[in-house]
Design a protein that fits this description.
This protein is α/β, with parallel strands linked by helices. The protein folds into 2 domains: 238 residues, Mur-like, catalytic domain (UDP-N-acetylmuramoyl-L-alanine:D-glutamate ligase), CATH 3.40.1190.10; 163 residues, Protein-Tyrosine Phosphatase, Chain A. The chain is 42% helix and 17% strand. It contains 15 helices and 16 strands. The strands form 3 sheets. An 8-stranded mixed beta sheet has the order 4-3-2-5-1-6-7-8, with helices on both faces. The chain has a 6-stranded mixed beta sheet with strand order 9-10-14-11-12-13, sandwiched between helices. A two-stranded antiparallel ribbon has the order 15-16. Helix 3 packs across helix 9 and helix 12 crosses helix 13. The chain is globular, with a radius of gyration of 21 Å. The relative contact order is 0.11.
């Protein structure tokens, strides 16, 4: 008996993805746009793509542009904002389907928004979810290993991301990222203006030539800020207004978010679910440990029916940068969560971790968080849970079950107090 995921997998084997995109996804985007009277034509659209940092960069752009007094909307993984209204979308994907997206854009037109910032994923670009939307500015954060279950090769993944820059007037590129040369040649052919940013290489915007202050920690947030600075500057917003907006930016739900319940150690929630994202958060937190005797404890999983190759990579990153790893569920879908964990464990062992001593396998995510907080954590340690962040559900089989990482962490902290 076939379930829907098995059927989808079978269809992908016999029908090329490109044919599905052209025969199904493109017409859907057209009719969604037509029904809503092509609202993107009445907006100036900024697209942000990349593997990590998209949501933070979109929110930074929104905050800067809005703070400059420009009527602005945005759609990101976390939600949509239209003026003062915040809309919780509940999507379990980065880019919504064309119908809800076009409806949101039409709502922005009705509210007389001038700009909209869209978080654009490789799936969304490849499947024409942003079809019939003309982007004025395209920005990229970075492009690292992810979604190769769908794209098959890194080169295909790059090409899908590069689709954002078709027809843009301005391309904002990360000078330090390995995707730079590929994207530069792609956008040069389109004869659009290129603006660069970076921390290590010479670029149009760097921490040296555009000084700013932000409360968000980590080098990766320096990159997110510089991308937003480049976009805002291209719109003619003054450096003073940009700096002021960045200094007042508040961290996004589920991104490097600390949960405090009076405990004598730190607990942090983050959305990191790629090898590079996990490496960024763990490196940042390790640098914040107050002494060598304190431990960094990481709780994380890897999604089912997604890029299998990255599972051992996630385990290796965790094993290399965390003192203790607790491997658990993160949307296993129709896969056996224990097999996914075993694949991550291979990476932990490559990094020198030993099962039962420096890494543990606990499939139930609540039990995994309980174990990390109630059994492993000591005074001065840092416990970070990665991969769920802001999400409101977790997928087992073909069903989404309610899930809150915040509630799970607070429940574990409460249980620790009661036990003591």
């Amino acid at each position: 008996m076939y379930n829907i995921d098995t059927l989808k997998s079978f269809l992908r084997q016999i029908i090329p993805q490109a044919a599905i995109n052209l025969g199904f996804h493109l017409p859907k985007a057209f009719f969604a746009s037509l029904f809503n009277q092509f609202p993107a034509r009445k907006l100036k659209v900024i697209g942000v793509t990349g593997t990590d940092g998209k949501t933070t960069t979109v929110n930074l752009n929104y905050h800067i542009i809005k703070s400059a007094g420009i009527k602005t909307g945005m759609v990101s993984t976390v939600g949509a904002k239209i003026g003062q209204e915040e809309i919780e979308l509940g999507f379990h994907v980065t880019a919504p389907d064309p119908w809800p997206l076009q409806k949101l854009l039409q709502k922005m037109v009705d509210r007389r928004m001038e700009y909209v910032i869209l978080e654009t994923s490789s799936h969304g670009l490849d499947q024409y979810r942003f079809g019939f939307i003309n982007f004025e500015i395209g920005a990229v954060t970075n492009i690292t290993h992810d979604h190769l279950d769908y794209h098959k090769t890194y080169e295909n993944y790059l090409a899908a991301k590069a689709a954002l820059f078709n027809g843009v007037k301005i391309a904002v590129l990360n000078r330090d990222d390995k995707s730079y040369e590929f994207l530069k040649h792609r956008v040069q052919r389109a004869a659009c203006r290129i603006i660069t940013y970076g921390v290590k290489n010479q670029a149009d915007y760097t921490p040296k030539n555009f000084k700013f202050k932000i409360s968000l920690p980590g080098e990766y947030n320096q990159y997110n800020c510089l991308a937003a600075i480049a976009v805002a500057s291209s719109l003619g917003i003054s450096p003073e207004k940009i700096r002021l907006a960045i200094s007042t930016f508040i961290a996004i739900t589920g991104r490097m978010e600390e949960i405090k319940e009076g405990q004598d150690f730190r607990t942090v929630i983050d959305f990191a679910k790629t090898p590079s994202g996990l490496e960024n958060i763990l490196k940042t937190l390790r640098s914040q440990l107050k002494a060598n005797s304190y431990k960094l404890i990481a709780v994380f999983g890897s999604a089912g029916l997604r890029d299998v190759a990255k599972r051992s990579m996630m385990g290796e990153v965790g094993g290399r940068l965390a003192d203790i790893c607790v491997l658990t569920a993160e949307d296993p879908r129709t896969e056996d969560v224990n097999k996914i964990i075993d694949q991550m464990a291979e990476g932990c062992e490559m990094a020198g971790k030993v099962e039962g001593k420096t890494y543990f396998k606990i499939p139930d995510r609540q039990e995994a968080i309980n174990f990390a907080i109630q059994k492993l954590a000591r005074k001065g340690d840092i416990v970070v849970t990665c991969g769920k962040g802001h999400e409101k559900s977790m997928c087992f089989g073909q069903k989404e079950y309610p899930w809150s990482e915040h509630e799970a962490v607070r429940k574990a902290l409460k249980g620790r107090k009661e036990t003591k």
